[in-house]
Write a structure and sequence with these properties.
Chain B: Heterotetramer of 2 MoaD subunits and 2 MoaE subunits. Also stable as homodimer. The enzyme changes between these two forms during catalysis. Chain B: This is Molybdopterin synthase catalytic subunit. The complex is a heterodimer. Chain A is built from three helices and five strands. Chain A has one domain: Ubiquitin-like (UB roll) (Roll), CATH 3.10.20.30. The N and C termini of chain A lie far apart (30 Å). By secondary structure, chain A is an alpha+beta fold. Chain B is α+β, with helices and mostly antiparallel strands. Chain B has helices spanning 12-21, 54-69, 100-116, 137-141, and strands spanning 2-6, 28-35, 43-50, 72-80, 82-84, 89-97, 120-126, 129-132. Chain B has a four-stranded mixed sheet with strand order 1-4-6-2, sandwiched between helices. A four-stranded antiparallel sheet of chain B has the order 5-3-7-8, with no helix packed on it. Chain B is globular. The chains are: A alpha+beta, B alpha+beta. Chains A and B meet through loops of A and helix 2, helix 3 and strand 7 of B.
């Protein structure tokens, strides 16, 4: 599964993408796994209210299941227009 | 529906004319254009990042929803990414309808949703450094009126 980061989430983690081999059941399980990796991940994921998540390019909640998901993306609230 | 995400500048007049010219039976065309503004007087650039793939899907979904809610014959969303200078055009929407109310409302709906539901992120580069633009509560609140 590919995990993508955008905007300041990407900057804090230091790269735009990770490929993970594990199979977390939900977005929250994935977040916990990433937080445990290194400090920069823990910092990026410290405040989930400042983050949004997309699963296979659709906006989802943090309790969304990940079964069959190919791509998960984390990013701040969007500022288009 | 014409959805485009591109780095290159666009010609507002040419786009508006081409959009109007391909309509048939439409009495109204509304366009909106967003421009990079320099509120503090020291903005050197606006950098726009997006999520290729999801961006196009999200814009199509927003345009489809507008077409479900209003009688519009056509819609255009054109949004740039990359590094833009102050006063450059960031994006435009255009809508066409038989009567103007549908075109105006659909254009406002497109703007409200693409501000906070399409995966773009703006970063302002000033003399003091570079900062990501924070999402505004008003933009989120604006969605509740639809």
């Amino acid at each position: 599964m590919d995990v993508l980061y955008f905007a300041w989430v990407r900057e804090r983690i230091g790269h735009p993408k990770d490929r993970i081999a594990s199979t977390p059941a939900t977005v929250m399980d994935l977040v916990e796994e990433l937080r445990a990796r290194e400090d920069r991940y823990a910092v990026a994921f410290a405040d989930l209210s400042a983050l949004r998540v997309a699963v296979d390019q659709e906006l989802r909640d943090f309790d969304a299941p990940l079964s069959g998901a190919r791509e998960v993306a984390f990013f701040p609230p969007m500022t288009g227009g | 529906m014409d959805i485009r995400v591109q780095q290159a500048p666009f010609d507002l007049g040419a786009e508006a004319n081409a959009f109007a010219a391909r309509q048939s039976g439409m009495g109204a065309v509304v366009t909106f254009t967003g421009i990079v503004r320099d509120l503090g007087g020291d903005l050197s650039a606006m950098e726009i990042e997006h999520y290729p793939g999801m961006t196009e899907k999200a814009l199509h979904a927003i345009a489809d929803e507008a077409a479900n809610r209003w009688q519009i014959g056509d819609a255009l969303i054109l949004h740039r990414h990359g590094r833009l200078a102050p006063d450059e055009m960031i994006m435009m929407v255009a809508t066409a309808s038989r009567h103007r109310a549908d075109a105006f409302q659909a254009a406002e709906f497109l703007m409200d949703f693409l501000k906070s539901r399409a995966p773009f992120w703006k970063k302002e580069v000033t003399d003091a450094g570079a900062d990501w633009v924070a999402a505004r509560d008003e933009d989120e609140d604006a969605l509740t009126r639809w």
